[in-house]
Amino acid sequence: MRIKKILALVTVILVVSSITLGLFNWQSANATKPNQKLIHPTGVDLSKPIKLVIYMVGNKPDDLEMVLKEANGKYFKPKLNTTIEVRFIPFADLQNKYSLILAGGEQCDIIYTANWCYYAQEAAKGAFRELTMNWIKKYMPQTYKSQDPASWEQMMINGKIYAVPKNSSPPVNYKFVVIREDLREKYKLPKITNVATYEKYLFTVAQKEKGIQALGVAGNNWELRQVLCKQLNKIWNIDESYDFYYKMNNKPDAPASSEIFYLFTSPYFKEYVKRMVTWAAKGVWPKNAINNTISPSDLFAQGRAASYVHNFAVFGSGKRLEEAKLGKAGYYDLTPDIKFKRASFANDAFAITRKCQYPERAALVLDMMKNDKNLNLLLIGGIKGVHWIEKPGNLYARGPRADKYSWNTWGWALTRPDLPQDAEASAVQRAMEKSIGARAIPTQTDGFVFDERPVKAELAVINSLRDEYVPALELGMFGNKTDEKLKEFEQKLKKAGLEKVLKEVRRQFDEYKKRKGLK
Amino acid sequence: MEKAHNTFSLFHKDRKVGVHTFWKNILKNKILLLMLLPSVLYVIIFNYIPMGGIIVAFKNYNYQDGFLKSPWVGFENFRYLLISNKLWLLTRNTILYNIAFILTGMIVEVGIAILLSEMSGRYFKKICQSAMLLPFFISWVIVAAIVLNIFSFEYGVLNNFLRSIGAEPFDLYSNQSIFPLFLVLLRIWKNTGYGSVIYLAAITGIDREMYEAAEIDGASIWQRIRYITIPCLRPTMVIMLILALGQIFKGDFGMFYQIVKNNQILLEVADIIDTFVYRSLMSSTDIGMSAAASLYQSVMGFITVIIANKIVKKVEPDYALF
Amino acid sequence: MHKSSIVGRGQIDKIIFNFLSYTIVGIFALACILPFYLVVIGSFSDERTIITEGYSLVIKKFSLEAYKLIFKNPISIIRAYEITIFVTVVGTICNLFITLMTAYVLARKDFPWRNGIMFFFFFTTLFNGGLVPWYLLCSEVLKFNDKIYALILPLMFSVWNMIIATNYIRNNIPFEIIESAKIDGAGDFTMFIKLIVPLCKPLTATLALFTALAYWNDWYNCMLFIRNENMYTLQYYLQELLNSAEAIRRIAEKSGRIVQALPMESTKMAMTVIATGPIILLYPFLQKYFIKGITIGALKG
């Protein structure tokens, strides 16, 4: 009886407190004073104070409110009579939530989008406002001037632009390796300059080091595929979001459309798979790596793996490894001489939504965020002196509250070419960044964007086959049955209509070349 | 034992309703109808109104035109299911796994419920019952990690043990014959605690008098289970079966995706409709194509249930759902 | 009948039965406890031990990092608990009332349209219009965004539970009881409250458990409708923490930048422990309803 009474009492208290908490907590006062007639130089009437809601991908930084207060108070409110609010869609909820936010009636004026973040599909569904060049010229004058022309092309769907891309594209699509330098020295192995020396390192570690796996992999081997298939053979995607490739051969020229091929039926892929079979046989990674979910970077940083492949993020894991005193990290580029296609600008962009009531105002906000250098730095790095500290030579260092607002965790689409670099980066990292940055070249294929709509059913099946076969193939799981499996994979792709899709890619590429006047 | 039959035969009489006219019936049952009102309204609002969304399976949906005015595309959204050349295989896998899950699940759940109900140790019983509910709280993501920890070929606990006693290591992740069985076991492990609660409640609801009478008649514990408990659980089992059959074309995505991953060797025996659709539409927000797949699953499930209910109605009219 | 010999055999049977049941139930319970135990140990372990050595039976290197991460904002997590408990308590009570009431009506043999209405309900378990129209209805028409009822309404009625309940009432409560109550002049609703609900204790306990678990574990509706961090439910709050840990890695790989790493693996496990605890403490209270049987016969007279 007594327990019952106590339980009832606790429940009542909880209920009451929850209600009071719930009811009184979400009333944000948004009182703004009426303004006199305010006209922006572009002709936009600014007299009405408005609030724009920007949706981003990722998680909210702890100090976001503090940064936004400064951005609104110093920039948006006085100059545009506008305030902005930034909301986040976590990566994990992206697929569920992204189109719901666009489909629903809630306020969302500007939204992050990208070629990997449903840009083409949502644009096709009419989620975004179409931006004509004239409109951009009028309402985003600074962007119009500063933006790389190729970046607009990369946003085009059937010749129409629906989003404003970033203005700098660091070569995150280029991969290199990090190894345990201490292990390399222990076994007196040569410096790693090419695939053969890397192979030797991995084989030695696999054979001699117990309790540590030579290469860290989780579920697939795509990072290594980038190096050994793409970079080594100098082949590159014709459109970054799809698996159709051409032989780039260090040159910027566009290929003949007939030279475009599907990666996973190409000899390059087969050759790579065969190499992976030997690596798997030597025990370079555990037999069940395909079912592993611990990320390679963690495996390496915690001393479980002796190497892994990725972009500049490897320096982070190397640092963690060294800080934990588990070993010494060494960074090596297996293809130091190749030139390659720079990453697509469409990797990060902002779209103004169809339901935005003040598209011109949104355009002005975007224009300012991208081009006002101080505002740009504020949004990307937080408050100067608090979240980041300026260092000579266009560098930045971590400020006292850097943990609460890390550098560039959401403003990817605001990236400019002149952003400060990390002052804490080692000389090796700096040199690597410089070398890789210099080899990312503009090419004639940069502006080509494949429109998948005519073949979306075929492509859906092809993608499901790709995700079914490729991870197992490239982890060498089929051993001596690999040829058989490759054939089976190819036949299934053929049945699913790979020819039709390839034909469509080639047709669109021909059209693109014609439009661009390329031969 | 006759008593058990008596309880059920009670329901055979009183079938005289339907003589009255419709309006008279409404007036007569106005309180009962009023009591149905909240749930009926609920279902209309939260289920039947949004159900109109099924039409996007036949449309090329866009925001401007919305659900009603978006252009019709016929069966275009279903096409990827057909050209995959896999629909039959996927459907078969999904059904077979579900049948295995339903049957083994039911046997184990009923078995555990009976054992628990007949056990005398109070605290042991309570502790075990609570313990069996624990797996329900462990997400498939963590289950997958634990499974890998035990069965990993190089580092797994099991294989380390096998090697230490000089036995051959066992590779679960490339064993196509053991793996389906393993999935069934995993499923039993995760769901039994939760599932057996229903049967436990049903057993608790059985009239004690029947057991007392049986005891006086000298029935053994086995006979009591065989002739009282199991027959009394039958209607519950039939209902649970019919409910499960409606979902027989829908697979447990979380389980299959997390445990199997993109392991082609295992996918050959463990690819289901839901994982295939996920792989196909992962990089897409095409609601038409996903609606097409779920409509297929719903229609097939619907047909199955209607047939099952018909059969039940013929054999045992009182157990039928509707 | 030779009574004495039967009693003897009965005792042997009982011993065999007890031996079998204790062994089977014990082993099964152990198989259920062990993985959970591994999770608890893992949640208190150093991240590196988990990654390099996997799950273990003893804590090799004690660490509270995961719990520190979860409790870094104690006020937020307490608030999340409050919201979740509130939603669970209110939701479960409302759900039970509606569900049992519906079940009672459909279980009445003298209710003329019960088959048709049962089909009307059952149909919704088979077909649904997908997420988008449902979301649009809830957020546009019913204005769910940032409202506490957005967390209660979507789970307030369960057709599955209702069918289970209907079946239970049909099979366990003899229709005679209802008829005699009717003759005594009891109204339909009074009969439900005074007669059916007390007779259905084991059923109510079962449904209460199922419903409470559904509310307790629900993060999906919170993900869809709640923007205000002060209204996050416990499960979504924990998930958000994990998301942000995952996001850090994704961002690092996306931008090629170095960022601080969070203990992902141990956090996952600490999350399980924290989210399981309260409900596992609650379950033993409900269990007494499964243990004590009821004697309906006594009511028949």
TrEMBL record, chain A:
Signal peptide: none annotated. Residues 445-514 form the DUF3502 domain. InterPro entries: Bact_solute-bd_prot1, DUF3502, SBP. Transmembrane segments: none annotated. PANTHER family: ABC TRANSPORTER SOLUTE BINDING PROTEIN-SUGAR TRANSPORT, ARABINOSE-BINDING PROTEIN-RELATED. This is ABC transporter substrate-binding protein. It comes from Caldicellulosiruptor diazotrophicus. The lineage of its organism: Bacteria, Bacillati, Bacillota, Bacillota incertae sedis, Caldicellulosiruptorales.
From TrEMBL, chain B:
It comes from the Bacteria. It is a multi-pass membrane protein. It is found in: Cell membrane. Residues 91-308 form the ABC transmembrane type-1 domain. The lineage of its organism: Bacteria, Bacillati, Bacillota, Bacillota incertae sedis, Caldicellulosiruptorales. Its main location: membrane. InterPro entries: MetI-like, MetI-like_sf, UgpAE/MalFG_permease. This is Sugar ABC transporter permease. Keywords: Cell membrane, Membrane, Transmembrane, Transmembrane helix, Transport. Belongs to the binding-protein-dependent transport system permease family. The chain crosses the membrane at residues 31-58, 95-116, 137-158, 178-206, 227-249, 287-308.
Automatic annotation (TrEMBL), chain C:
Residues 81-286 form the ABC transmembrane type-1 domain. It is a multi-pass membrane protein. Keywords: Cell membrane, Membrane, Transmembrane, Transmembrane helix, Transport. It comes from Caldicellulosiruptor diazotrophicus. The chain crosses the membrane at residues 15-38, 83-106, 118-136, 148-170, 191-216, 269-286. This is Sugar ABC transporter permease. PANTHER family: ABC TRANSPORTER PERMEASE PROTEIN MG189-RELATED-RELATED, POLYGALACTURONAN_RHAMNOGALACTURONAN TRANSPORT SYSTEM PERMEASE PROTEIN YTCP. It comes from the Bacteria. The keyword Electron transport does not apply. It is found in: Cell membrane.
